[in-house]
Amino acid sequence: MRITPLKDAVARIPNGASLMIGGFMGVGTPERVIDELLRQGTRDLTVIGNDTAMPGVGIGKLISANAVRKVVASHIGLNPETQKKMLAGEIEVELVPQGTLIERIRAAGFGLGGVVTPTGVGTVVEEGKRKLEIEGREYLLELPLRADFALIQAFVSDYLGNLTYVLTARNFNPVIAMAATTVIVEAEHIVPVGMISPDHVTTPAPLVDYLIAQ
Length: 214
Prior knowledge:
By secondary structure, the protein is an alpha/beta fold. The protein is 22% helix and 29% strand. The chain starts with a strand and ends with a strand.
């Protein structure tokens, strides 16, 4: 793990990269990282997250700046700009049921070959997917979902990269930290090693590649 300036961490993200971004309606999203992506003009991104927040908030900033080529999310209902761009063919949107989305990400992090779920059977969600019958019930095989980078927002990190989160800002952050090649963390507070009790560590240091200096 390396502690690095914001601009240097974000400069590692090339055009066309796939990003998992924590957050639920912008809560738990690393806003400084988003802003630096915009400043550096990074484009053609694939963004994987729970939602696209709202205009001017979190992932919504990337949508407004036309920096995103594809979105994989559970819903886009709070961001009319995402909806408009999808209908106009300016952005590709893959809608995934929320539970299925996080399980696909978790499967990647745990090295699983996929998950089976009844969610989506008999709907458009099943199109192009393998169906299994288990004990007389139909399931869909959902494949693992990985990304080049995970962009994490934590409440506290120590100087090794052990992370804790606060309340609902935790959301997808710990899971996406396990499912990306490179993990970049923006923490509200950085404290000396030993200040975080081992019982309170949610994301352990070996998963973190870059911690952004304050």
